[in-house]
Task: structure prediction
Amino acid sequence: MNPLTLLYRLYQLVFIAPFLLLTTFLTAFFTAFGCMLGLSRWFAFTPSKLWGWTLIRALFIPVTVEGRHHLQPGQSYVFVANHQGAFDIFFLSGFLGREFKWMMKQSLRRIPLVGYASEKAGFIFVDKSTRQGIINTMRTAKARLQGGTSLAVFPEGARSFTGHMGDFRRGAFQLADTLQLPVVPITLDGCFDLLPRMRGFGFVTWHPLRMVIHAPIAPIGKGADNQKHLLDESYRIIMAALPERHQGYVKNADQ
Result:
């Protein structure tokens, strides 16, 4: 191990680890507290944006964001991104530059404080257990995605083991179809190199991050054909912007 890598790991152990624990707690606390006071428009998004931005900057990770000019003020979108690693959440939260709600698994609601804060912030927990649960999820999303507030989803539903893309689930595209919202594909690159899933919560490897915000895909109608069109186009566009070494479909056994 070279001296710079050793120094970087020591810095993570002494500073970043306690910093991450503290800021995660504070982000969840202030999000929940601010939303309880009725200030949800600011507290539902800003603390998590600062949390993601600060952590990546504290790790001295260079960031490139392309394509923000594609997004129109006041327009709500469904953002769909590939899921390379745990840092995708920090990256999108800190650097997308748009207010959005996360679409999350029901199981994440059980995480102490974080699940409660996410609920107070109006994040959308997907209930696929019954038909009525799906209908209620759609109603909740329709009520919350107003006035430029958007939705962010990882359609793969699980982090990649290889850096390659797996299958996309249809939920986000069904929601976009129901609400007739444009879908914005986002390519995230670098998070797999930064902290691959197989390493768990190990040391971060310094690596640049790149986000490409692609042009919105407008609905071409309503129904199954539109959903397929949104899914297929998003998948193709996101993959085309990945580096060659991460091109191509690889089945993810966790999906």
Strands lie at 63-66, 78-81, 100-105, 124-126, 150-153, 183-189, 209-213. The radius of gyration is 18 Å. The chain has a mean pLDDT of 90. The longest strand covers residues 183-189.
